[in-house]
UniProtKB/TrEMBL annotation:
Organism classification: Bacteria, Pseudomonadati, Pseudomonadota, Gammaproteobacteria, Oceanospirillales
Keyword flag Nucleus: no
GO terms under cellular component: cytosol
Protein family: Belongs to the DNA polymerase type-Y family.
Highest taxon listed in the record's lineage: Bacteria
One GO MF term: DNA-directed DNA polymerase activity
UmuC domain location: 15-200
CDD domains xrefs: PolY_Pol_V_umuC (cd01700)
Pfam families linked to this entry: DUF4113, IMS, IMS_C, IMS_HHH
Protein's name according to its UniProt entry: DNA polymerase V
GO aspect biological process, one term: SOS response
Keyword list, A-Z: DNA damage, DNA repair, SOS mutagenesis, SOS response
Organism per entry: Marinospirillum celere
Length: 439
DNA sequence: TCTGGGGTCCTAGGACCC
DNA sequence: TCTGGGGTCCTAGGACCC
């Protein structure tokens, strides 16, 4: 196993991590002035727990992931505004953010729904700070979103620089971290090891037992020991802390290797038909994603699970796999597979709480993948269905997701998540455009 | 009553083969 | 009495991320 090094750490090659501050909350605020200056939270699917918090909500001591039902007393006392998540809006705002970033660099790599890496070349350190400010300003002006910008030689350091930037009380939230600067030693010493990107709770515990408590100690630890006692992953993190890039941008835009669609139900169900309805929905969505990235699936699977928090009820959780004879992107074939699998997986007397679909072993949908043994008749059928899928995808893209489905409509189904406080799809639905009223 | 969803990468260990 | 060793492939599960 070798450590892959992507390029050398030449002084003029830098990477910026641009990250939306309290992103989901900021997206909501961009369209709703009443949300400014008060505690705001965005809830998970099903309005179950808190997945984004404004600074005011953080100040009240509400932790990330807090179950909503456990903070009811705070909600009333402090006039907390809670919103259901509106991922259509957040994804669209993310697209805008990346459009703006692409004016600053032709190498922008979206990393998650609220952050992107941007390669910056040919700058000296002070020029970098100014560049970061311009990025921050452009996003504030054009997308009305606050961001933090962290710049360094590697992504791991840019992550740390970004957290530094966000700590700034006033002025631009931009920070540059030079791996070779003297000040970096102090900063890394003051950084607990679990705050390093890629070091979670478990690894941190093990590192602490060896006397490695902070980022500087990790950077200076013997590399051979890290590789032997831990893994190549930790050795790469160490290289990155030294300023030698090990993650590069080559992974961008590659097709996903697995796709998953799953949801908890609005209420638990012991009705097989109802669960099948939920799975049908998930299958259709998964198949769309599959066709979007131009892949075919070989191994298909579904899973079911009861609510693990209900220790008073019997628990059942299981997954079943299905192998397609030929890789496919056809929704009808996947629906059929899901139906068969569910019949085998189903157990009477359990209240199921979540169901999902997993597409594994994805292959490229090039014509070479099709069987040479296919008869002209089956080929005709396949082409007809492919055209049907194309039409469905186009309609759903232009008219909104779920406009056309195979089988029963999904409108009032019992498994549907609760989303009682969702904001409108301001930017992606003609029906929900913000209204301006002249007085 | 009420506790998210969707990913990636790596490793250990079993199965199998010669 | 002694009961191989080394390779590959696959899968489950751990750990981490946002």
């Amino acid at each position: 196993m070798s450590i892959q090094q992507a390029g050398s750490s030449r002084r003029n090659k830098w990477v910026a991590l641009v990250d939306g501050t309290n992103f989901f909350v900021s997206c909501e605020r961009a369209f709703s002035p009443r949300l400014h200056g008060r505690p705001v939270g965005v809830m998970s699917n099903n309005d179950g727990c808190i997945i984004a918090r404004s600074d005011e909500l953080k100040a009240l001591g509400v932790p990330m992931g807090a179950p909503v039902h456990k903070i009811q007393h705070l909600i009333r006392r402090h006039r907390i505004a809670l919103l259901s998540s509106n991922f259509t809006l957040y994804a669209d705002m993310n697209r805008r953010l990346n459009d703006i970033l692409s004016c600053f660099s032709d190498r922008v790599e979206p990393y998650s729904v609220d952050e992107s890496f941007v390669e910056l070349s040919g700058f000296f350190t002070d020029g970098l700070l100014e560049q970061g400010r311009q990025i921050e300003q452009a996003i504030a002006q054009q997308a009305h979103l606050p961001v933090g910008v962290g710049i360094a030689q590697t992504r791991t350091l840019a992550k740390l620089a970004n957290s530094q930037a966000k700590l700034k009380r006033q002025g631009p939230k931009v920070s540059v971290l030079d791996a070779d600067a003297d000040s970096t030693c102090q900063l890394l010493e003051a950084t607990p090891v679990e705050e390093v990107w890629g070091v979670g709770k478990r690894l941190a515990e093990r590192l602490r037992r060896l006397g490695i408590d902070n980022a500087w100690q990790l950077r200076e630890a013997p590399e051979a020991m890290l590789r032997k006692r831990f893994s190549v992953t930790l050795a790469r993190i160490q290289m990155e802390l030294k300023g030698q890039p090990c993650h590069d941008g080559s992974g961008k835009e590659t097709a996903k290797k697995q796709l998953r669609v799953s949801r908890s139900f609005g209420r638990a169900s012991d009705n097989q038909q109802e669960v099948l309805d939920a799975l049908r929905h998930h299958v259709q969505r998964a198949a769309e994603k599959l066709r979007e990235q131009k892949s075919l699936v070989k191994t298909f699977s579904i899973f079911l699970r009861t609510n693990p928090f209900r220790s008073d009820r019997p628990q059942h959780s299981d997954t079943l796999l299905y192998q397609f004879d030929q890789p496919t992107a056809d929704t009808t074939e996947m629906l059929e597979a899901a139906r068969k699998l569910l019949r085998r997986l189903w157990r009477e007397g359990y209240h199921y709480h979540k169901a999902g679909v997993l597409l594994m072993e994805l292959v490229d949908a090039s014509p070479a993948q099709l069987s040479v043994l296919e008869t002209s008749e089956t080929q005709n059928q396949r082409l007809k269905r492919e055209r049907l899928m194309q039409v469905m995808d186009r309609v759903n893209l232009s008219q909104g997701r779920g406009s056309v489905t195979l089988g029963v409509g999904m409108k009032e189904a019992g498994w549907k998540a609760r989303q009682e406080k969702r904001s409108p799809a301001y930017t992606t639905s003609w029906q929900e455009l913000p209204k301006v009223v002249a007085r």
